[in-house]
Every structure is written in C-alpha cells, then in structure tokens.
Write a structure and sequence with these properties.
Mean pLDDT: 93
CATH topology: Rossmann fold
Low-confidence stretches: none
Number of domains: 1
Strand order of the largest sheet: 6-7-8-3-9-10
Helix content: 25-40%
Order of helices and strands: EEEHEEHEHHHEHEHEEHH
Structural class: alpha/beta
Bound molecules: adenosine-5'-diphosphate, magnesium ion
Radius of gyration: 18 Å
Number of helices: 9
C-alpha cells in the first residue's frame, strides 16, 4: 500500500510537485499520467527515496518516507525509462548480481534468483555475455531483472517504455501485467493515455505539479461523458474542463 500525503517539492522557485495526495491499494496498478515537466519523475524519485521532499510525506507498506527510508528501499523496485544504465563491461548476470548485493542478498541467493529470472525473461542465451553490445530489448530485460532481483512488493516505473521500439515496449508491458498477476503494487508514469489505458486500474493525472484528477478509467469516462481517454486527458491538461 502506498499513501502519498501532501507531498511537495520545490527546486528554488520552481514548484515541481505541489502538495499532491493519492493512495494506491495493494495489488493495484496506478498510472501517473502527465506531459513533460508535469512532475512525474520528481514524484517517483521522492517515493524511491532518491530525493527528499520539501514538505509532506508518503507511507509505503507501513513505513514512513521521512523517518524510515532504508526500510522502504527493501520494499520497492525501480525501473526508469530510456537508457537502461547497465555496465557494458559486466555480463548480464553480473549486472543483476551487483544490484542483489546492494540489496543485501547473499551470493547463493543471488545466483538462484538470477537463474530463475533468466528463465522467466528468456535471457539464458546471453546471461553470461557482456552487456555492451546487447540490443535494446536485451538490455531492457536485464534492467527489468535487476529491478526485481530482491523480489520487492512494490514497483515504481518512470516512463519505462520511453525510447523503446515496439518489441522492447511489449516486453515491458507484459512484465507489468505479470507483476500485477503476482499481486504486486505498481506505480508507473507515462505521457501516453493509451498505454495507461491498457495497463492501469486507476489513473492520476498530474499537470504543473498538481494532481488534477484521480479515478478509475471507467470513472473518468462516466464523469466526462467521453469514451476516448486521450480526449479526456487533453481536455484536462488543456483547460477544457476548468
Ligand atoms: N533537479 C532539478 N532542478 C531544478 N528543476 C528541476 C529538477 N528536476 C526537475 N525540475 C523541474 O521540475 C519540474 C518537473 O519535472 P519532472 O518531475 O522531471 O517532470 P516530468 O517527469 O513529468 O517530465 C520541471 O519544471 C523541471 O524542469
Ligand atoms: Mg520525467
């Protein structure tokens, strides 16, 4: 369970996130939808304990962000979009194992887990090859495996498909669906209503640092009398419903 309570972040005079609150129940997929600069990455970096909020807090699986950040780190997995950020000179296995060590796992445990993930994600052909020359899809699989090596119950994805081709995007979408089937709690950000519509139970629309709407997809359609979610999104960020 994730509860975000009046969370704000200022960078000097810029208000990146303006007192946002929302709740994501266990096992739900929550889509944080917004245009560039809306505050998505800032919000997710705060929840991932990578950035301190200016005010407000969040409670994640019962742990408070402000007072127990190290407890929260063990509960969450993080996957960011764009470049996978792997170490080119390390093999896929070594890249994943390194994150396992950072998360306090022992070597035996890590090896078993890497073998399991390698099977599930179909990485067996390249798991012991260096990552430098991998295709985008291969790199994304390694990044995915790395993000869940410690079997977190909560996943945070920041625009996980941005810059990926069609097949790599599918790998990510299937992965999110699989995690949902396993009962994981997921927040992912996107600027594509289409993507959010495919994967989410609930959506929060963020605009200029404010959550301007939070609802199920069905709830949004009912409230705005419009089937096309993209239209609703454009209307909300374009001021049509003000
Ligand atoms: N480290 C930073 N220093 C100054 N301003 C920042 C920093 N990070 C983000 N911002 C600003 O905060 C706002 C929200 O950014 P961000 O959270 O990255 O949005 P999004 O991920 O939705 O595109 C933007 O105006 C951005 O320029
Ligand atoms: Mg961003």
């Amino acid at each position: 369970m994730i509860e975000v309570i009046k969370l704000s972040k200022k960078f000097k005079e810029i208000v990146a996130v303006n007192s946002i609150s929302f709740k994501v129940d266990k096992g739900k997929v929550f889509g944080l939808l917004g245009e560039n600069g809306a505050g998505k990455t800032t919000t997710l970096r705060i929840l991932a304990t990578m950035l301190k909020p200016t005010s407000g807090t969040a409670v994640i699986n019962g742990y408070d962000l402000a007072s127990e950040p190290e407890k929260i780190r063990g509960e969450i997995g993080i996957l960011f979009g764009g470049e996978a950020g792997l170490y080119d000179r390390l093999t896929a296995r070594e890249n994943i194992a390194y994150f396992g060590l950072l998360n306090g796992m022992d070597k035996v445990e890590i090896n078993e887990r890497v073998d399991e993930l390698s099977r599930i994600l179909e990485m067996e052909d390249f798991i012991d090859r260096r990552a430098g020359k991998f295709s985008k899809g291969m790199k994304q699989k390694v990044a995915i495996a790395r993000s869940i090596v410690h079997n977190p119950s909560i996943m945070l994805f920041d625009e996980p498909t941005s810059g990926l081709d069609v097949s790599a995007t599918r790998i990510v979408h299937n992965f999110i669906k699989e995690l949902k089937n396993q009962g994981k709690t997921i927040i992912f950000s996107s600027h594509s209503m289409d993507e959010v519509g495919k994967l989410c139970d609930e959506v929060g629309i963020i605009h200029k640092g404010n959550i301007v709407e939070q609802s199920t997809l069905e709830g949004l359609r009912k409230k705005y009398g419009e089937d096309d979610l993209e239209e609703i999104f454009m209307g909300l960020v374009g001021g049509k419903y003000e």
